[in-house]
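Lab notebook, page 48
Experiment: co-folding of the full assembly
Goal: obtain a model of how the components sit together before planning crosslinking
Operator: M.T.
Materials (sequences as entered):
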Amino acid sequence: MRLRLPRWAAVTAVLAVIAGAGTWTAVASDDPPPVHRADRMLDLDGARIDTSYFTGDADGRRPAVLLGHGFGGSKDDVRAQAEQLARDGYAVLTWSARGFGASTGEIGLNDPDHEVEDARKLIDWLAARPEVLLDKPGDPRVGVTGASYGGAISLLAAGHDGRVDAIAPQITYWNLADALFPNDVFKKLWAGIFFSAGNQPGAASAGAPGKAPAGKTAACGRFTPELCSLYERVAVSGKPDAAARALLEARSPSAVGSRIKVPALLVQGQSDSLFTLAQSDAMARTLTANGAPVAVDWISGGHDGGDRETERVERRISTWFDRWLKKDTSVDTGPAFRVSRTGGVDSTDGQATLRAATDDRYPGLTPGATDIPLAGPAQTFANPAGAAPPAVSAVPGLGGGVAGLSSLGVGLSLDFPGQHARFDAKPQDEPLRITGTPTVRTKVTSTATDGSAVLFAKVYDVGPDGRQQVLPAQLVAPVRVDGATAGKSVTLTLPAIDHEVEAGHRLRLVVAATDLGYASPSVPAAYTVAVEGPLTVPTAPGLDTQAAALPWWVWGLPLLGLAGAAALLLTARRRTAAPAPDPALAAVPLQITGLSKKYKGGDRYSVKDLTFRVEQGQVLGLLGPNGAGKTTTLRMLMGLITPDEGEIRVFGQAIRPGAPVLSRVGSFVEGAGFLPHLNGRENLDLYWKATGRPAQDAHVDEALRIANLGNALDRAVRTYSQGMRQRLALAQAMLGLPDLLILDEPTNGLDPPQIREMREVMIRYAAGGRTVIVSSHLLAEVEQSCTHLVVMDRGQLVQAGPVAEITGSGDTLLVTLGEAVPDALVEKVGALPGVATATRTDGGILVRLDTLDPTALIGELVGLDVPLTGVGPHRRLEDAFLTLIGGGAA
Amino acid sequence: MSPLLDTPTAPATAAPVESAPGYRAGRTLPLRVEALRQWKRRRTLIMGGILVALPFVLLIAFAIGGDQDGGRNGRITLMDTATASGANFAATSLFVSAGFLLVVPVALFCGDTVASEASWSSLRYLLAAPVPRSRLLASKLTVALAYSAAAMILLPLVALAVGTVAYGWGPLRLPTGGAVPAGDAVLRIGIAVAFVFASQLVTAGLAFWLSTRTDAPLGAVGGAVGLTIVGNVLDAVTALGDWREYLPAHWQFAWIDALQPQLEWGGMVKGTAISLTYALVLFALAFRGFARKDIVS
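Observation: model returned without errors.
Model output:
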């Protein structure tokens, strides 16, 4: 017996494989290791600082991480990251900075004497913890990270405290004065948002309103008076002054830049008009010069919004600390320079997809320059009175979506006619990837009384139609020009971007007089701008765009599917090899041995233990009533169904589904099977072609002659009568003159002349040495055309042998006479030796033989001059058949 | 009466002869023969007719409807740019038909192929010819997939021709803005069609498997279409969350990613992976089941 799995088992197994992966992840994320959190208020230098300390389950001393929060937030914002770091094996301390969250004190914008000092005290506190790994007493192994405000404190802590071992500042500033007063232009919108974020009534002041220091205007909120007045002064004048610049610079990481020498992962946003890529570029240059390992990571989003890639960035920070705090040299800290590039939108979830471009070194903002000539005459344009209406580029707070859209070919940016100059380049012949800051030399002339001008330079990517224009990352570069009454050469440094200009697109330099995000002079003036040189565009050819990361299952599932498919097919293979051919039976057309078949769901055997043999040249009649198992036997013979037991051999070859020896068998079983839309000729032609055998072996003409369809051959088979189909099917069965021809009820639907013709065909076919098996319940037909019989009933063999043997039993013969004979003659016949009796009946003389055989009897009868016309078995086959199957013989 | 009887040749009686002269299992049911068997069927021709006619129907609809600037609820679809160029028209035709119309030919060609032979009783004669069962399925599957692919190529091809005559040869204007040059656009539409075909492999697999399980051609076709609809319904259940990613229907419109300014492969690769996975298993089930099936039709 062969192994047979139930079909559902296979399906279930495959589904289990498909579902398995999902189950594993679900289990993995089900039960994260617990993280312990301890909240404490620490009194540090006149302020109560709200802290949370996170530790995981690990034993022993471990490195610590200080995790700062962004401006306007609190320690609660970073709790999730803190817990993850704790799980990763760090002792994590978060705190709300002075003036934020539940901490008291005033906001000093990371004042070295206050906020930075707080951070130093927190490191002292960490050094006293028993679970924190120490480099030496009082010096814990500690890293600092955080975004924006928290990123700046990372840099500052490293600059002010030698105990810090690694940092990972994100989207933060190097020089706050440069960030808020770029090129001496006041970034009024962002500064305003920044200032008001520090002005929100926090938990501390809300809980204790009386605590607000007296003598401060309400507008100052929690800012120190010094910073408050700085902001108000600059905001009112619209122009930064030297004192303001000096104060902000003193509090910036750049002030202690030369002292920051620890490994730093610098994460900066591309959609960030507040802290631009130029800020992280300054960090990278200084830290690299200091000899510190530096990696730069330009994320897609930023303060203007967009995808901050939080999950990936946090994972990378964790890895960074694994390398530099745990000193695990086996981890890969990632490329030295990585840029997230926006691909298209994934339409299934509406998300823009990101791809990484990486380089093993950070090339800075002015790598591999390409010069692109700009065309356009000198243009004069107006600075409108009151600086309104302003041109629009990045819009903080709203800009998120907008900056993100620019990479998708859509953007919201606006330049008012008459308020800007523009210079177009030729369309690109091939795509150009800008990575860094383009520069261009221009000549600026101003009619302002002091000869100054505030200009906003931007580079658009203009589509082939000349109208669709996109401002990469929505960024503009403001510049203040002084002493330009008589014209002054100015090199404009445009915003750092990573942007691809497609072939057919062109670059357009626009120099505008206003921008919504910045303060510009409200006194009207006319500016004239001319380009003095090409647009120098940096490219970073070393940056390789990686394919977008795809989940494991994109490759895994088809492989699993393939494995499942292979498993399904391999387990279906029979274990037993095909039985070897039996040379002894090579000339035996059919040998059936012990054949049994029970249909699935059937209550009894359709064929049971059937054994018979057909010799060459026989016309074998397979006889039986309906349900005797004739057709089932023939189906097994054709390899259509598999026997449960037993064996069928045709010319010595065992029959399996599709056994090649079936090509020596022609069959017509259970009616015709044709393609109804094709005509008879096409059906035969395509059937023969389907056998793959040479066309000349088909003997189509002979077969067609048997079919005798005439013109109907060229009609679609669906129009045929039952008899026509039948004849066509017989022709199909005889195609190629098979050595064994199997015909199941071949005369159904034929008219009497055709039946007779059919009979002759079979007899003569077999006479040629071929073999024919005919199944039928038309007994007369079998009687007249078959040489041998197999009688079946209820699936079992009843009798097999030559027709005469079964029908006549050599017993009683009917001698039909041409004319009446005298009684004496009948008596003479009865007296012949070997004849038992002879009696007269209706049709002639009934002779019961004793020892004489029928042939000898005929000789004797002729000798007696009996006018016989025929001698036949008296017990007609019908009677024999009924007797054999035990029905109606009683 | 029959000359075949006058030229009898007795079978050789010496060594066992494994098969008739000239018979080789690997040569049975050649693809060309199977393609011819299917070609003249009415359903093939009707399906082709529908796919050819659809662009003309759309063309007439746009001609009657005229410009439609008002009331589109701020949502921009390919419909809005349909008449911009031949390429746009082809993309729009694909857009309106990919969801359902293109499922039908795949289900039809793959679902009908074995079941209809069973219902005509011609299957048993092929198997007794004998065409080995796996060879029969391989030929039938290849031809059914080829016909499916042809149906999918036919629609956008006719639409491109019709659209080019009606609206001119021009760049593909994208609904989100921007344009793809005409030559590039044809390539993009080609990628989209290729993905639609790949994403329909699961329907093909399902239909083909059902086709080997039943003798009723309509049962196989209807079953495949029905289960595709069930997939769409399940995909609409957002509560399933990430599990929907494993539904083939989830990715059926990922080919639109080929028609945005920046060609985005992610969704199409994922959709192909899912579809291929299901299809492989279903094809294997079909071969496995058919290899051991009792053919009683």
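Interpretation: Strands of chain B lie at 172-173, 179-180.
Next step: discuss with group before ordering constructs.
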